[in-house]
Every structure is written in structure tokens, then in C-alpha cells.
TrEMBL record, chain A:
Protein name, entry field: Rho guanine nucleotide exchange factor 37
Molecular function per GO: guanyl-nucleotide exchange factor activity
Stretches for region Disordered: 1-35, 603-629
Residue ranges annotated for the SH3 domain, each copy included: 525-601, 632-695
Source organism: Tupaia chinensis
Length: 705, 243
């Protein structure tokens, strides 16, 4: 519905003038027709101005009043409906102002009007093409509203409230206009909104018509003629451009949508038509590749496409790399060494923990959040934006194949079907769209990319500043802050070296908690001997025999197991350190060193080196404790009961007497008898008469027990 | 020490005074906790530094990939921007590497050394425990023999048992005393040990190895500022040339 004042007055004038021009001489007629032309011209001019006024009024009504009342619609919908109506209002207001100024200049008016149109040509094109291209979407939206009765009633109410009923007439009823939109409103109330919207599109188409009318009524030799002519052509161009733009947009929106189809849906889409389409394309492609058919080389487009691909790759790679970076950042934030509790109340440890906690909870977290919001999100949006053009480029290639085939056919046959013509147009539309818009698109993407990278750097800088600030703050509380770095490092190295020595000593101490040595029990009667040796030589020189020693040479001693001797020299006269000179308290002689073991009379903390003699230099730390109770061969036993020997092979026992067990079985292997030595005599005794005693001899040689 | 299995039915005789037992448990408990914390700290520190390095490596990858894009050949402004970014990322990576090496030397390795004492300690404690078991067992044996009638064989056995008991008891007491001595000293040594490490750790965040160059994050911050300034001017150029 166009809200305008019908202009019967103009019509009346027009018709009224006609009859008077019928009579008159040719000369007069010439003059009269001249006059008539001039009149028509003036009428046309007035029509232009008046319609412009009413049009602007309509615009403002739509834009301000109706739009403001449609508050219940979401803002996005309002934007679609009314598009850039504000811009249009601005442009047209200025235009009207210009028109009204020309009204005062009688003679030159048409000339000025022509110039005005030329002046405004670009702006009109710019502003109207956006609106017209968007128009379809707006219509769709209005249709959607119509389907919702509640909403529709509301909209009607608003429109009727804003615009008085009587003024709702059809569109401009002027015979010079091609489109007659006069319809009684009563039957088509539901279309009122759409009518309002279409008036804008129609206005721009009316300009060339109006200009044409003025031109017709202008004398060819009038000064204004060329200007007017140019203006007419210009406005026609404008319309053509807007049309083309609209087609491009339609094509783009058709093909650039990313369709998420399931497999089933995709299969459902296959029909004979699509199959034939695709096979034709494929055959065309193959013919090209085989060289049968020349390929259309469009260097300009190829360059553009190449650049687009690089840009696209750049964005994708950046996105992936940034995703990896964010993952790593997350992993980093997961570990919190500062949460350990070493039970150290103060000093650098506590400061470090505070600093680290601060950094993680504040600085890094903030960094992460900013990174996600300011770098990651824009980058994702950018990546999404690239999908549309990708699709279009793919489609263009398909359409190109179609186009080439159609061209071939055209050459061969001379005519093409309607569908083929449509295919040609589609290709051309796509191609021109891409060629026109890709360069700007590429540039915009590069700018966007640059912005993203700069933001990334700015965030890194901020993080670095934060870390620096906090760490320096922490440093002022450190004890050695005044010491320059290399000296400090040396200091740390020294201190660590010292403490590591300390640690080593701790470790050794712990490892020294060894089992007590398996000392052999003393032979009876030898305690006094040991005491004598001990007092004469000192405790460090006492050794115990671990195995029976049978001396070979004249100076060698024969000693039983368990005997205590004192060391005189730890090598013999020839320098052999395997033979030691010892004192038994009675005799002196050599014994093999391997059969001696250091003997300690009093319990002490000193290290024992197990059963091994002084052969080895390296310290053998035996971490495994040998059980104190088990000695490999138990040879020292005590007779539990008295036993009378009944043969020469047996030996007598007294209760409580310590005996030396030599073998726990007899010659035939019978375990019931044991070979023992007692009082220098050897013989068999029943095994059950013996009580086993554990090996560790009394530590306590204690003079106090 | 409830993990000592003892035979059901045998009353647990308190052969060592409760206070001693309590002291021992307290000291050892503290050390056990310290061990756990040390292990945890070592692990976390290692993982944290690894993650730090991974982060800066992935930042370097960003600029490397950008550099390898053919756009750099076509577009000199883009090339200069990306080169500057690449330089900055590589420097940041180098600094991080330095920092991590420092941390490795002054914190992680000392932590390892500290932790290596604990196994010896636990072995020593086990040995003490075993000595305690033996002590208990032999003590019980002696008690058992004491309760029997005083016959010859019994007396002999009693004597034997007493002889066996004495070294074991002394051994246990020696071990106990030693550990009770050393454990608190070891626990206290952690103060001397950790403080310098952590001080070095804080300093590593601020100053690089070389004393003459400015502290790294400051250097980094300055580098970033320089970069953003350069890009702003570059952007102005592209803006004016593009439209």
C-alpha cells in the first residue's frame, strides 16, 4: 500500500489544457505544441517533486512510526524488514531538498534537475541496491508473520493506528507509470506491510520513467536536453546495476549455504536430473583434461582464486596452531607445584608458593580468558566466513563446465534451450560476482587476520608484563636480591654442594644400621683369655676365628672355630697380607686372614664389615639384614641330658655341658646320632640329647653383668 | 605400627616404653609426609616445566607456519609482520628454554637427591622393626622358660635363651637410638636444602643467566611493544594503499 495523495488536480489541469490546443494555425500549432510540451514538461517536473515529497513521507512513516510500534519483534527481524531505510531517507531528503531549490529557478530548472540526478546517481545505486537485494528476505519474513494470526492482527492494528483509514489508497495513479498498484485496500489488508516495503523498490524504477517524460517534453535543441538525456541513461544504468546486483546476491545465497545433509537426504536428492547434470559435467571435465576441448582460461579469476586459497590455508593453519597452543596452556595450568607442603614456615619457599599461586590463578587465567575471547573466537568466526566463498568457487567451476558445453552447443546448433540459457546466465552471474567481490573479500580477511595476530601479541605482552611485575615484587623480599645473577648462581651451587654432602652422610648413616655381626660363640674357658688379650692389645685388635684353621707350616697355628686372637701384624715376613701374625694368649703364629673376623667385646656404634676380612677396600654395605637367629652351621650346642657312652664310638655327656657339634648324622646318614666333640673327645651321642643354641655369642662381655 | 602381624592369642607385651614408640612414630611420620610431598613436588615441577616448553614451542609453530605461506612472497607488509612475529616467538622460546634449564639444575635435580635418601631410611626403619620382632620373640621365649620348673635341662635352656636375648636387645636399642637421633636432624636439614633452590626458582623467572642483558620478561615486553607499534604503522600503510 502506498500512502500518497491522489493527484486529480494535476490530471484535471492536464486534461483541461488539451482541448485548447486543438485549434490554431500550423505556426500557431507549432507554438501551441511547443507550449503544450512546455506545459507537459512543467507538469512532469511538478509530478516529480510532488511524488518525491509523498514518497519521503511514506518512508518516514514506515521507518519511524511503524517500526517503533513493532517492538515485540526481535531486533534482528526488524533489521531485515526495514534494512537500510534510514540511509535511504537521508539520501532522499537531500535529493528532495535539491529538487525544491531548483523550483525557484524557472528557466534552468530542468537543467538543474538533470544535473542533480547525475550528482545523486552513485548514491542512489549504492543505497538502493542494498535494499533491493535484501527485499526478498523481507518478503519471506512478512509471509511468515502472516501465518501467525496473533502477530498478524497486532501488526494490522498498529498500521491502522498509525495511518488513518481514509488515506490508505492504492499506489500512485498516474498514467505515465507502468505499474498500477491501485487496489482497494479493504480486500488486501494483509498485504499492507508488503506493499509498504515494495514502494521503495519501485521508487528507484520510477526515476528513469519520470525523466523520460520530462525529456520527451523538452525541445531537442534546448540547453538542458543533453543533460537530461545523460541523466536518463544514468538512471537506467542504475537500475540495471541494481538488478544485476540483486541477481548476484540471489545466486550467492542459493549456493553459499552450507547444507548439513545426512547421507539419507543426500541419497534422496539423487534423481535422473541431477545424475544427468553431474555426468555431463564430468564428461566435459574429462574432455578438457584430455585436450579435446579447450579449457576456458581465466587468468584473472585464477589469480584471485589462488590468493583466496592461500588466505584460507593461512587462516586454517593459524586456527589449528592456536588450538594446540591453547591445549598446551590448559595442560600448563593443571600442574601446581606450589601446592606442595614442605612444612617450611617462611622464606623463599613460601614466597615462591605465593608467587606461583598468584601467577596461575590471576595472571595466566586472565591471559587464557582473554586469549579465548579476543583471539580464538574471532578466528573461529573468520574460518566460518570462508566457507561461503569456498562453496561458491566450487559451484562456479561446475557451472563453468555447464557454460562451456552450452557455448559449444551454441556454436554447433545456433540456439539453446531455455534451461541452457539459464545455466549460462547462472555461470556468468557467479563469475562476475566472484570477480567483483573476491579482491575486497581477500583484503578484508587479511586485515582481520592481521588484527587477530596483533591482538595475540598484545596479550603476550600483557602477560609478560604481569609476570615481570609480580616476580620482581617477590624478588624484593628475597634475602640475596642484591647479589647479581652469576654470583648468586655460584652461591647456590656451593650451598647445594654442601647440603648434598650432608645428604650423602645421612644416607650412609641410615645404611649403616646393619645387623649385628654373626659372632661365633666363645669356647668355654676362653673369656679370661679374651679379657687378657683385650687388656693387653686393646679392643681394636681382637679377631675371632670363623672356621677351623689347621696350620701347615711350623709357624702356623691350628685353631678351632670361635677362638679369639689378637692381631700382631697383618702380613707375614714376605709381605703376604693373606697371612697374619696373631697372638692367642699362649701361642703366636700365622693364620690365614680370610678366616678371621673382627671381634668386638663391647657393643659399639662402629661399623662392622660383616664376615669379610680387610681384603676389600670398598665398603660393602649390606642392606639386607641377615636374620640374627640363623647361622649357616650350628655347631655349638648344649647337652640337655646326661649320657653315658656305651661304646668307644660314643662319648659321655653331662647336663648343661656345651659341646661342639661336628656332624648331625652318623656315618650311615642316620640323623638320630650326632658326632660331637667334648672335652677334646669325639664321639656319637643321640641327637635328641642336644639342645641347639643360637649363634650370637653374648655381646656382652659386659663386665658389669 | 599396626602392620606388625602377631599371633592371635598372644598378648602384646610392651617391651619398649610407650613414649619411645610414640616418639619414633611421630618422627617417622613427619618424614614420611615429607617424602610424599617431595615426590609430588618433583613430579609437578617437571610436568609444569614441560608444559611451559610445549607452550612456547607451539607459539613458534604458529609463526613458522605463517612464514611458510605463499602470501608472504606476494604481500611485503604481511611478510614483515610475520617475520617480526617469528623473531619474537623464537626469542621467547629461547628464554623459556634457559629458564627451564636453570630450574632443572637448581630445583629438580636437588629434589631428586633429597628424595634418594628416603629409601635408605625406610630400609633402616624396617631393620629396626625386624630387630624389634626378634627382640619380642626372644623375650617371650625367656619368659616361657622362666615359668617352667627349675630342672636342669630347663635351666640350661633358660640360660641359652638369655644369652640369645641379650645381643638382640642391644642391637634393637642401638638401632632405635640411632634412628631417633638421625631422623629429626634429617627432617631439619630440609630448610637448608630447599631455601636456596626456591630462591633460584624465583630469580629464574626474572633474570636470565647473563648479567649484562636486561631481565628477560622485561626484554620480552619491550619487544612486544615494539612489534605492535610497527604493525600499527604498517596497518596504516595497507589501509591507505588498499582503499
Amino acid at each position: 500500500m502506498v500512502l500518497s495523495f491522489p493527484e486529480p488536480a494535476v490530471m484535471a489541469d492536464h486534461r483541461a489544457e488539451e482541448p485548447s490546443s486543438r485549434s490554431g494555425s500550423p505556426d500557431e500549432e507549432g507554438r501551441v505544441s511547443e507550449d503544450r510540451s512546455l506545459l507537459h514538461q512543467r507538469l512532469a517536473v511538478r509530478e516529480l517533486i510532488d511524488t518525491e515529497i509523498s514518497y519521503l513521507h511514506t518512508l518516514q512513516l514506515c521507518a519511524s512510526d511503524i517500526r517503533n510500534h513493532l517492538q515485540q519483534l526481535p531486533q534482528g527481524d526488524l533489521d531485515i524488514l526495514f534494512s537500510n531505510i534510514d540511509d535511504i531517507i537521508k539520501v532522499n531528503s537531500r535529493f528532495l531538498h535539491g529538487l525544491q531549490e531548483t523550483a525557484s529557478k524557472e528557466e534552468e530548472q530542468v537543467y538543474l534537475i538533470g544535473n542533480l540526478f547525475l550528482e545523486f546517481q552513485e548514491e542512489f545505486e549504492h543505497v538502493y541496491k542494498v535494499y533491493c537485494a535484501n527485499y526478498d528476505q523481507a518478503l519471506l519474513l512478512v509471509d511468515a508473520y502472516r501465518k501467525e494470526p496473533a502477530l498478524q492482527r497486532e501488526i494490522q492494528r498498529i498500521i491502522e493506528a498509525v495511518v488513518p483509514h481514509g488515506l490508505l489508497t492504492g499506489a500512485l495513479e498516474q498514467e505515465c507509470l507502468v505499474v498500477d498498484l491501485a487496489r482497494p485496500l479493504a480486500h488486501h489488508k494483509s498485504q499492507s506491510m508488503s506493499r509498504g516495503l515494495v514502494s521503495l523498490c519501485e521508487r528507484i524504477t520510477k526515476y528513469p520513467l519520470l525523466l523520460q517524460k520530462i525529456l520527451e517534453n523538452t525541445l531537442p535543441d534546448a540547453g538542458a536536453y543533453p543533460v537530461l538525456q545523460r541523466a536518463t541513461f544514468a538512471l537506467q544504468d542504475v537500475n540495471a546495476n541494481i538488478n544485476e546486483y540483486k541477481i548476484r546476491k540471489e545466486v550467492a545465497s542459493k549456493y553459499s549455504k552450507v547444507e548439513q545433509l545426512t547421507l539419507r537426504e543426500r541419497l534422496a536428492r539423487i534423481n535422473t536430473h541431477t545424475l544427468s547434470k553431474k555426468t555431463t559435467r564430468l564428461s566435459q571435465l574429462l574432455k578438457q583434461e584430455a585436450g579435446l576441448v579447450p579449457k576456458t582460461e581465466d587468468k584473472e579469476f585464477d589469480d584471485l582464486e589462488e590468493r583466496f586459497q592461500w588466505v584460507s590455508v593461512c587462516v586454517t593453519e593459524l586456527k589449528n596452531d592456536l588450538a594446540a597452543y591453547l591445549d598446551n596452556l590448559e595442560v600448563f595450568l593443571r600442574f601446581r607445584p606450589h601446592e606442595c607442603n614442605l612444612d617450611i614456615p617462611g622464606g623463599p619457599v613460601v614466597q615462591y608458593c605465593n608467587l606461583a599461586r598468584d601467577l596461575q590463578l590471576k595472571a595466566f587465567l586472565e591471559f587464557k580468558q582473554r586469549l579465548e575471547a579476543l583471539v580464538w573466537q574471532p578466528l573461529c568466526s573468520l574460518a566460518k566466513v570462508l566457507v561461503g566463498p569456498q562453496n561458491l568457487i566450487k559451484k562456479r567451476l561446475d557451472k563453468l563446465l555447464d557454460f562451456e558445453r552450452v557455448e559449444e552447443k551454441l556454436l554447433e546448433v545456433g540456439s539453446v534451450t531455455y534451461e541452457e540459457e539459464a545455466a549460462r546466465h547462472t555461470y556468468q552471474a557467479l563469475n562476475s560476482l566472484l570477480v567483483a567481490e573476491l579482491p575486497k573479500f581477500n583484503q578484508l580477511v587479511m586485515q582481520w587476520l592481521g588484527q587477530v595476530l596483533r591482538t595475540f601479541v598484545a596479550l603476550q605482552r600483557d602477560l609478560a608484563e604481569q609476570v615481570l611485575q609480580r616476580a620482581e615484587g617477590s624478588m624484593t623480599q628475597l634475602p640475596h636480591q642484591h647479589i647479581p645473577e652469576p654470583d648468586f648462581r655460584k652461591l647456590v651451587e656451593n650451598s647445594l654442594g654442601q647440603t648434598s654432602k650432608q645428604l650423602r652422610s645421612f644416607r650412609e648413616n641410615f645404611e649403616k644400621v646393619l645387623p649385628p655381626p654373626t659372632t661365633q660363640p666363645l669356647l668355654p674357658g676362653s673369656e679370661r683369655q679374651v679379657q687378657a688379650l683385650w687388656s693387653r692389645y686393646g679392643p681394636g685388635k681382637l679377631y675371632q676365628v670363623t672356621n677351623n684353621i689347621s696350620g701347615a707350616g711350623s709357624l702356623d697355628l691350628t685353631l678351632p672355630r670361635g677362638q679369639i686372637v689378637a692381631l700382631l701384624q697383618n702380613k707375614d715376613t714376605k709381605g703376604n697380607s693373606g697371612r697374619w701374625l696373631v697372638d692367642t694368649g699362649g701361642h703366636r703364629g700365622y693364620v690365614p686372614a680370610g678366616k678371621l673376623q673382627p671381634y668386638r667385646v663391647v657393643p659399639s656404634e662402629e661399623e662392622r664389615r660383616g664376615q669379610v676380612g680387610p681384603h676389600e677396600d670398598s665398603r660393602h654395605l649390606t642392606p639386607e639384614p641377615t636374620p640374627t637367629c640363623s647361622v649357616p652351621t650350628v655347631t655349638q650346642v648344649v647337652a640337655a641330658y646326661p649320657f653315658l657312652a656305651r661304646s668307644s664310638q660314643e662319648v659321655s655327656l653331662q647336663a648343661g655341658q656345651p659341646v661342639t657339634l661336628l656332624e648331625a648324622q652318623d656315618k650311615k646318614g642316620n640323623p638320630e646320632w650326632s658326632l660331637v666333640e667334648v672335652n677334646g673327645q669325639r664321639g656319637y651321642v643321640p641327637s635328641s640329647f642336644l639342645a641347639r643354641a643360637p649363634s650370637p655369642a653374648p655381646w656382652g662381655w659386659s663386665l658389669t653383668s | 605400627m599396626s602392620w606388625i602381624p602377631f599371633k592371635i592369642g598372644q598378648p602384646k607385651k610392651q617391651i619398649i616404653p610407650k613414649t619411645v614408640e610414640r616418639d619414633f612414630e611421630r618422627e617417622y611420620g613427619k618424614l614420611q609426609q615429607l617424602e610424599e610431598q617431595t615426590k609430588r613436588l618433583q613430579k609437578d615441577m617437571k610436568k609444569s616445566t614441560d608444559a611451559d616448553l610445549a607452550m612456547s614451542k607451539s607459539a613458534v609453530k604458529i609463526s613458522l607456519d605463517l612464514l611458510s605461506n605463499p602470501l608472504c612472497e606476494q604481500d611485503p607488509d604481511f611478510l614483515s609482520m610475520v617475520t617480526a612475529l617469528d623473531t619474537a616467538m623464537k626469542r621467547m622460546d629461547a628464554f623459556n628454554q634457559e629458564k627451564v634449564n636453570q630450574i632443572q639444575k637448581t630445583v629438580i635435580e636437588p629434589l631428586k637427591k633429597f628424595g634418594s635418601v628416603f629409601p635408605s631410611l625406610s630400609m633402616a626403619v624396617k631393620r629396626r622393626e625386624q630387630a624389634l620382632q626378634d627382640y619380642r620373640r626372644l623375650q617371650a621365649k625367656v619368659e616361657k622358660h622362666k615359668e617352667k620348673e627349675k630342672t636342669g635341662p630347663v635351666l640350661a635352656k633358660l640360660h641359652q635363651a638369655r644369652e640369645e636375648l641379650r645381643p638382640v636387645r642391644d642391637d634393637f636399642e642401638a638401632k632405635n637410638r640411632q634412628l631417633l637421633d638421625e631422623m629429626p636432624r634429617f627432617y631439619g636439614s630440609r630448610l637448608d636444602y630447599f631455601q636456596p633452590s626456591f630462591e633460584a626458582l624465583i630469580r629464574a623467572q626474572v633474570r636470565p643467566v647473563c648479567a649484562t642483558s636486561p631481565p628477560a620478561p622485561w626484554r620480552q615486553a619491550r619487544l612486544w611493544m615494539h612489534l605492535t607499534h610497527r604493525w600499527r604503522t604498517t596497518r596504516k600503510c595497507t589501509r591507505s594503499s588498499g582503499t
